[in-house]
Amino acid sequence: MANGVLLEPLSPVGVFDSGVGGLSVLQAMLSHLPGECFEFVADERYLPYGDKPQHEITDRVLTLSNWIRNQGCKAMVMACNTATAAGANQARAAHANWPIVGIEPAVKPASMMTKTGVVGILATTNTVASERFKTLVERFDPLAKVIAHPCPGLVELIEQSPMPENAIEALLKPVLAELTRKQADVIVLGCTHYPFVAHLISKLAGPGVAVIETGLPVAKQLKARLESENLVNMRQESIPAIERVKFYTTGQPDAFKKKLVNLLGSEWREAKVHQLLV
Question: Could you say which of 3.10.180.10, 3.60.20.10, 3.30.1780.10, 3.40.50.1860 is the CATH number of the domain covering 13-103+216-275?
Fold first, then answer.
């Protein structure tokens, strides 16, 4: 029961991000929770979140969480590091007893993996500046020195269709050179857009550097939350992934569809994308 509404196992899970970055988390959830359906919202009219004032992001988090809750979704995943840092606490306060899963950079596993004792984190400007992020880093500071590096402009490049890999490499090259110079041997991707360029990050960082993303940990956390609330969809029959997701964008549906296909593959060509005016 959340806000007087009965939550049902057959209901979908709501997911949102500022753009296509959350698709990297959606992929992991589709694989790890084969019985679940999802409603994915890309808040592209307000893209990118990373350089906006905190109060604006918090407002968007509350607006979208209200919409997703009113859709009858049984849980919500904030598939955006910046949105989690700016609005997870406020969303949970506004929607008591409704499962909300946020996303944070994987500092803990990185701190356990490093051999040099130095962990690099690539994130948006707002994530790096947030109190939530600072608290997270301080929690694991005894285990590793954490170097956070904002990457302004990277989300916008990843959102282009097709992605301009040369421009992305040019932006990332000095950042990764600095992190490796400081002996970081584990790099955490602190934005859900960044897994789509993980191959470029690995290439620039070199073979001795591990790159960690957070899609699967979020999927596991969602599964645990649904199990604890008896909300897992126990459906046995196999349904194609494309039939398990409804897509919405506050931007242009055709543009989002093009990015969806470019990033996830041609099997998503028949996906329907609805425009959302909130």
Answer: 3.40.50.1860
